[in-house]
Amino acid sequence: MRTTRIVEMLEVTEAAALAAGRWMGKGDKHAADDAAVEAMRTAFNQVGMDGTIVIGEGERDEAPMLFIGEKVGCGGEPIDIAVDPLEGTNLTAYGQPNSLAVLAFGPNGSLLHAPDTYMNKVAVGPAAADAVHIDLSPTENIRNVAKALKRPVEDLVVCILDRDRHRDLIAEVRAAGARIRLISDGDVFGAVATAIEGTGIHLYLGIGAAPEGVLACAAMKCIGGCFMGRFAWRNEEERQRAITMGTPHIDGILEMDTLVNTDEAAFIATGVTDGELLRGVKYFGQGSRTHSIAMENSTGTVRFVETVHRAGAEKFWVRRD
Q1: Each residue of 46-64: pLDDT tens digit?
Q2: d(Cα 197, Cα 186) in Å, to the nearest integer?
Q3: What is the DSSP letter of 297?
Q4: CA distance to 280, 307, 309, per residue, from 21 (Å)
Q5: CA–CA distance, 138 with 131 (Å, rounded to integer)
Q6: Which of 153, 197, 290, 299 is surrounded by the fewest CB atoms within 10 Å?
Q7: Which H or E run includes 220?
Q8: Same domain, 287 and 243
Q9: Checking phi first, is residue 174 left (phi over 0); if not, alpha (psi -120 to 50) or beta?
Q10: What pLDDT sits at residue 93?
Q11: Inter-CA distances, 186 with 78, 159, 212, 275, Å
């Protein structure tokens, strides 16, 4: 994959983060999301590619832009793109950590068109990639990861979305002896954090949105970790619709190569609010600063990129108290 493509896509997530960051702490998640979506789409259309949104803001009748199937770019190489312009809209609106602007991409036909449903997920970093399985119990996965990492169970931190549906999961993890990091939103962060040293998260478990599973899988494929899932249908109508769409493995295991069927995937995220993985957007009198992560599967590289954006690229005001 060309390094120039990574830089072009990095500018896309930076644009979304810069736009969303203006709404940090203002309590309006819809405005923050709208700003990120519009900025991301505008930036995409400056990139020389024939891009297709395969994971986006929803079906065409649900989203005015970045809808599933939308074409972006100004012509060139055909690629699949999965986006979450603002992962953690509530996190941004209320000034909470780990909100991100996220995208993944790969060759045409390489990313699963995940239906709008839930997915049961397990994710872990490279050192324990062979230790987990979606069909094992949480207790078994925890013990296996502890053994692979050569540490006691009590030293493990499991990341779980704070949802009522996870009540039994949380109880079992605690009974197994592991500690828990509950997050209110942003399970792409939760999965990816297991593979980044210094986040303090070792295992991700639980049910979250299926489209975000494709984004997380792309990152884990780039970094050498493990991601595995299984659709968790909310009703039979969802399941039948997915069958009609031709979605594979309706009730089976979703391996990494099913979700991201390429060795040329890339994953990029830019921080909107400060967190363990990335720092958030900072605005100052002469411009702004962003902090991003860019991963490439083909080269096995993970880059942390800090960018200073000089004033003039965007118009903004800064209040000095």
Answers
A1: 999 999 999 999 877 678 8
A2: 19
A3: T
A4: 8, 15, 14
A5: 12
A6: 197
A7: helix 210-223
A8: no
A9: alpha
A10: 98
A11: 29, 11, 9, 11
**Sequence-ordered list of residues with C-beta below 8 angstroms from that of 317, at least 6 positions apart, any chain:** none
Specify whether 98 is located in the same domain as 225: no
Residue 316 in any domain: the answer is no
269 and 281 Cβ atoms separated by less than 8 Å: no
**Which residues is 216 bridged to in the sheet?**
none
Helix/strand/coil for 197: coil
Q: What is the CATH number of the domain that holds 57?
A: 3.30.540.10
Q: What's the total number of domains in the chain? A: 2
Q: Quick one: DSSP state of residue 164?
A: G
Write down the pLDDT at residue 61.
64
Same domain, 283 and 202: no
- Cβ pair 130, 51 in contact under 8 A: no
What value does the mean pLDDT take over residues 25-31?
97
Question: Which of 318, 98, 128 has its CA nearest to residue 193?
Answer: 98
Q: How confident is the model at residue 1 (pLDDT cuts 50, 70, 90)?
A: low
What domain range includes position 202? 118-259
What predicted TM-score, i.e. pTM, was given to this entire model? 0.94
Q: What is the mean pLDDT of residues 110-127?
A: 96
Q: What is the largest CA-CA distance in the chain?
A: 58
User: Residue 296: in which H helix or E strand, if any?
Assistant: strand 287-296
Report whether pLDDT(319) > 60.
no
Considering the chain, what is the average pLDDT of its residues? 94
Inform me whether the pLDDT recorded for 259 exceeds 90.
Answer: yes
Following DSSP, what letter does each residue of 38-76 receive, concatenated? Answer: HHHHHHHTTSSEEEEEEESSS-TTT-SSS-TT-EESSSS
Give the DSSP letter string of 100-138.
EEEEEEEETT-B----SSEEEEEEE-GGGTTS--TTS-H
**Same domain, residue pair 254 and 271:** no
Domain boundary at 240, 259, 278, which? 259
Burial 92-111 (b: 16+ CB within 10 A, else e): bbbebbbbbbbbbbbbeebb
